[in-house]
Specification:
Blueprint: H1 2-9, H2 13-28, H3 35-47, H4 53-89, H5 91-94, H6 96-109, H7 112-117, H8 121-133, H9 138-209
């Protein structure tokens, strides 16, 4: 994630917004991409002032809603065979076991799986195509999809934005406090060592002057 954040920081803000929308949009269509990593990295960049948090969140929400809708259309047209082909193409992300778990979530939670699926890595990829393949009514899907996309995008962005701001301020204070404590510790330890050395010097002087073995006599 640090590499992604460093790479994004070298780009103009407008390009970053497009990348956020594009990566999350393609991921929502059913292609495994690091959409959440891109969003988290961009939100942390917003905390440093590189980009604006509202535009990061808007780009993420747009990508999520549009991408899921396209994934829904593709899934409705291709059906389960399409999902199985995706599983063979991406077995580590969309294999039979992943597809079975996603179907169980839809069977248990219905359209709410679309809303909550936005916060789960597996369902975030499969929610659109799977809802289309299962012929979930599009209006219900769109409401759940839009609500989940907006909450996920704006919630994640602003949570990380404020946490990043707080951490930056906190770490800045800690760095100054650490410097002050380090200086004080150095002064106190130096004073203590000097005082200790002065106390021991009169005691150690006669011992050094006495010949070795004198006490044995």
């Amino acid at each position: 994630m640090v590499d992604v954040q460093h790479w994004l920081s070298a780009l103009p803000p407008g390009v970053i917004y497009l990348i956020v929308a594009g990566v999350i949009g393609v991921e929502s269509m059913g292609v495994p991409l690091p959409g959440e990593i891109v969003l988290v990295s961009s939100a942390l960049l917003a905390a440093t002032g590189v980009v604006q948090p509202e535009w990061v969140a808007a780009a993420a929400a747009t990508g999520a809603i549009v991408g899921d809708s396209i994934g829904y259309a593709v899934g409705r047209r291709g059906g389960r065979p399409l999902l199985e082909r995706l599983g063979r193409r991406f077995p580590k992300h969309l294999g039979p076991a992943h597809l079975a778990r996603a179907e169980q979530s839809f069977a248990r939670h219905g359209v709410w799986a679309v809303f909550f699926g936005r916060f789960v890595a597996l369902l975030r990829i499969l929610a659109g195509p799977l809802a289309g393949a299962l012929h979930v009514p599009y209006r219900r899907f769109l409401v759940a999809n839009a609500a989940g996309g907006l909450v996920w995008a704006f919630g994640t962005t602003y949570l990380l934005f404020y946490l990043g701001r707080a951490a930056e301020h906190w770490l800045k204070d800690i760095s100054w406090a650490g410097l002050v404590l380090a200086v004080l510790a150095g002064l106190v330890s130096t004073w203590w060592l000097r005082r200790r050395a002065k106390r021991l010097a009169p005691v150690e002087a006669p011992d050094r002057a006495e010949p070795v073995g004198a006490t044995e006599r």
